[in-house]
Request: fold
Amino acid sequence: MGKMAAAVGSVVTLAAEPGEDAFRKLFRFYRQSRPDSSDLGAVIDFSAAREARGTGPDARKVIRSQLSVSSVSDHDAHRAGLQPVSKWQAYGLQGYPGYQWHWVKQCLKLYSQKPNVCNLDKHMTKEETQDLWEQSKEFLRLKEVNKRRPRSLLEKLRWVTLGYHYNWDSNKYSADHYTPFPSDLAFLSEQVAAACGFQGFRAEAGILNYYRLDSTLGIHVDRSELDHSKPLLSFSFGQSAIFLLGGLKRDEAPTAMFMHSGDIMVMSGFSRLLNHAVPRVLPSSQGEGLPCCLETPLPAVLPRDSVVEPCSEEDWQVCTSYLKTARVNMTVRQVLAIDQDFPSEPTEEKKRDITTEGFCHLDDENSQVKRAKLNPDS
Reply:
C-alpha cells in the first residue's frame, strides 16, 4: 500500500437530459461506459507510469504532492503495513485547494462482526448476523465450482460502521451510539494523516463500503462530522473504480479518476465539502482476476509490535474469491474537535424539520442502501 491519490471536470460529449446538472450527466456517462474503451480516456490514472496522467484535459491538473517524511518513522510505517513514507507516490490536483492482505481480511472477517453495525441488521436478527465470515466462507470457497449458488451473507454486505456509528435516518453521529474503534485501523490512519501534515488526527468513525460490480455510490457531500478541518482518509482494495470529484454545486462538471487497489485518498481543506460519487466499479481486464498488487503476501518477518498480522492461506483463499467480483473501501474520519462535545438533541418538534439533504445510495440491482459519506481532500 504505497500509492497515494489526492483528489480533486472533464467534458464529455453526451446529451443532457431535461433538468440534468453537469455532475449527474457525467455520472450517467461513466455508469454506462464500456471498460477498456475510449469511454475511459479522460479518467485520470494515478498509477500510470508514475506520471499519474491520463489522456484527457484533466490530466494537466495532476501535480506531485510533498509529504511530511519525518513525521512517520520507518518503523511505525512498517508496523502499520506501509512502505516508508519516502517511497510513497503522492499526487494532488490543481484547481482544488503489499500489505493489503491484512486490511482486506480485517474488513471481511473482523470489522463485519458485532458490535459493529451493518446494512443487514435492518432485516436480520443479531444472532443471524453474528459472524458473517464463518457463515460465508464455505460458500465463497465453492464459488468457482457452483456459479448458481445463492449469494453468501458477505456478498450481501453493503456497509459497516465503526466507532461513532453514523445514523442514516438523522444524518448524524451521537455519543450514545458508539463502540470501540479498531486499534489497528486507528494506528494506520494516524500514520497516513501525519505523513500528510495532520499530526494529532484521531480516528473516531469509519464507514466501510462493500461494492459489487453493479454497485454505485450516488452523488453526495459529507458534512456530518462536527469538525471539517480534519481530513477524510479513504483506502481502496480489490477491483478498480471510477471516482468523480466535483465542486460545491452540482452544475460544476466533476473530474474523473481511477481508484485502484492499494490507493489511499486523503481529502481535506476545500475538497472536504465537495460533491463526489462512484458511478462505476470496473471488472478486471483478465476476467475474474485480482490486481497484481494483491498477489504479494505479507513479509515473513514483521516487527514485534506490528499491528499487521499474517493472513493464512485458507483465509486469503476466501478473500480472493470475494475480491474477484468486488471492491472494498474503508473511510476513516475524526468527528469531534479537541474538547468538543456533541450538541444536545433537538426537541421532537425540531426533529421533524430535519432535512434529508446529503443522503446518497450505495446501489446495485438487488439493494438500495441509504448512505452519507463524509468529506475529503488531499
Q: What stands out?
A: Confidence is low (pLDDT under 50) at residues 2-12, 49-55, 349-361, 365-378.
